[in-house]
Each structure stands twice: as structure tokens, then as C-alpha cells.
Amino acid sequence: MTTKVILVGGGHAHLHLIRSLMDEHDDHVEVLLISRSSHQVYSPMLPGFAEGIYTRDQVLINLRTLCAKAGVPFIQREAAYINTRQRKLVCKDGAVYPFDILSMDMGVDNSSSYTKEKRNKNSDMLDTIESLRDSYYPLIVGEGLIEVELALAIQSYKQHNSKKGHVRLLGESRLLPAESNWTYQKVVRILNSRGVQTWENEAVQEVQENYIRTNKKNKVRFTDLFWHGHTVPSKLFLASNLPIDDNGFVKTIATLQVKEHPYLFAVGDSTIMGKEVKRSESETNAAREGELLWENICHYLHGTELGSFHPQKRSYSVLSTGNGEGLLIYGAVSVHNKKAWKVRDKQDQSYMHHLLS
User: Fold this and answer.
1) Whether 133 contacts 50, CB under 8 Å
2) Residue 32 has what pLDDT?
């Protein structure tokens, strides 16, 4: 008898699981991927794309192609809710898929994603970046790693392609709040040296067609605006009455199973575990989650003991700083040069080659 396993979402842990099925396949297990999009952007390579180093094809993962290589059917639909009693996944268009085991890896949405053209969270991120690069005064609102890296990358693109204007960056708290104060000070110096105009600890109170007003009464003008917003977990958890915390993140246990629902698995940023992981460490943990996820699904099917996952911090991280350079951080030691960027570039390209080959 065939066991039906549904994967909801094309997150990086699921991609790693699907890649592993190219090498090991169980004829008694039928795996199906359901995602609202047929393509997944490999987010660590976004700064390189913004800087003009990578092309679209280099940063996009075609889920249909990947699934076809692994013999996994791909269905482009958006999940609405899970009927946990009958073990059925219901999609927004009414399609219903029964399952024995279901895993969720959808990532997070953004509560206030906004651009001048009113593109929303479902917009093509690559189109958004191209628009910002061509804009005279693009304003990026956000204090996280992705916002800082994009600001530096777009500024670098402008300088190397003779694009007039400069990037503006506004953080509603201190820039890079998840990083050490030492790293923060280093990055601020880099931002200043590259000509990125910054504001910190200023909350947006008003958004108009060509400016925003902050709680400090500053009026920051722009010709294009990117506001990624605060991350919020998938609404699928609430709609399915799954155990969630006050912010909507699904509660999981160390085996990656949803609390009180052993036949449901959840990984990635939308889980209690995932929201505690720094972005610079998330890709490493996603690969490890993908390995353990498939192992634990198989253990669950055979009634054997499941393994536990413990987030692992990387021994080093590399922040993209534009100009083909990176800031490599290893404990209290840092290196800022082109060789540091090449370390990150090699790592990301190796990942994509392994995934797609």
C-alpha cells in the first residue's frame, strides 16, 4: 500500500528533501509538492542579483523542473486549510488532496510590503529590485540584514553602471538588531563610505506618493519605495486550528512534528524554532532540516524512533557589502574584502549546482 506524503511550499528544507529523492526513492511512498508559485528565489543570492553579478536564471529555482528530476508530481495551487480529522488538504480553488503525512515549509509573508507602484507581497522580487536600481532616490525601509545588503548592492550597481542618484535606508530600530554591536558599527561605516543615506530608530507614520514622514517629524523623499514589512507566518496554521503562539508561528517539537499532530511536520521561518534563527544561519539550518525531515518521515512510517533537530550556528558568516566585497565574520575576527565575497559566492553557487544538477 502506498503512503501519500504532501509537501506544502517550496521552502529550502523541502527543496533539499526533493533533491535527496533523486538518489534514494521508496516505491511505497508517494511524495507530492504543492506550491502557489512554480519558481523559488534563492534568497542568499538576491544581493548579488541586485548588484548585477547574477542573472535571473542563476537565482531562480524552477520547482517543476526540480520535481520532474526527482519523480515528484508538482501542483501549482495555494493551500487554504488542513482538515486534520480527515487528513485532507483543501486548496483555495476547492481542490482536495488526501494524505497520510503532510509537511509545511512556506516561509513567511510580509505584513506591509509596499512599493511606489503598489506592488504587494506576491510581486516578483526580481522585478522590484530592477525597478529600485533604475530609480533616482530609492528608499528601502527596514533594519534587517536583507535590507542592508540590498541597499549596499543597489548603491554599488548605480555607481558601476552610471545610474544617477543614491540609495536611502530607514530602519525603524537600530540597523542589524540581530547582530553584535561590533558588527553593526562596522557595517554603518561601510554604508557611510558607500554614500547610502541612513536613518535609524524612526518609525514610519505616514506614506505619501513621494515621501514618508516618521515619528521624529522627518520627511524622507523617494522616487521608489521598498518596504518589506514585518514578517508574519502563514495563515494556513490559524485556518487549520493548529497550535500557534501569540504571533501565529506554529508550535513544533524537536522531531520537526507539529505539537499534538504527529502526522504533520513543519520547518522553516514560520515555526517557533525557525523564527529564532538569524538570517545568516537560516540556510545552513534549512539544509539540515531537510535531511532530518525525510529521515523522520521514514521513521514515522516504520514506527521507529525519530531524531531531534537542534539549530546549529555557523562558524562564520559573510555579509554582502557591494562592490564585489563581503564582510566575513568569524567570532571576534572580521575580514572585509573581495576574497570574503568569493567565499560566499562559491558557497551559494555550489548549493545551486548541487540542487539543480
Assistant:
1) yes
2) 97
Which one-letter amino acid corresponds to residue 250?
A: V
The identity of residue 104, as a single letter, is M
Q: Which of 230, 255, 277 is the last residue of a domain?
A: 230
C-alpha cell of residue 189: 561605516
Q: Which residues pair with 41 in a beta bridge?
A: 60
Whole-prediction pTM: 0.89
Looking at the DSSP bridge assignments, the partners of residue 168 are 139, 197
Query: Residue 206's beta-bridge partner residues?
Result: 213
Per the structure, the complete domain to which residue 22 belongs is given by 3-108+233-302
- Average pLDDT of the segment spanning 67-94: 97
Query: Cα separation of 27 and 1, whole Å?
Result: 10
In a domain, 128, yes or no: yes
Amino acid at 226: F
Closest to 339 measured CA to CA, from 314, 313, 318: 318
pLDDT of residue 119: 44
* The Cα angle at residue 320 between residues 314 and 326, in degrees rounded to 5: 85
In a domain? residue 262: yes
Q: Which residues pair with 221 in a beta bridge?
A: 211
Segment 38-48 shows an average pLDDT of: 93
Instruction: Tell me if 326 is assigned to some domain.
Output: yes
**In 22-78, beta strands by DSSP E:** 29-35, 39-41, 60-62, 74-76
3-state helix/strand/coil string of 195-236: CCEEECCCCEEEECCCEEEECCCCEEECCEEEECCCEECCCH
Q: d(Cα 238, Cα 23) in Å, to the nearest integer?
A: 36
| pLDDT at 216 (0 to 100) | 95
pLDDT in tens, 110-148: 544 455 544 444 348 899 999 999 999 999 999 999 999
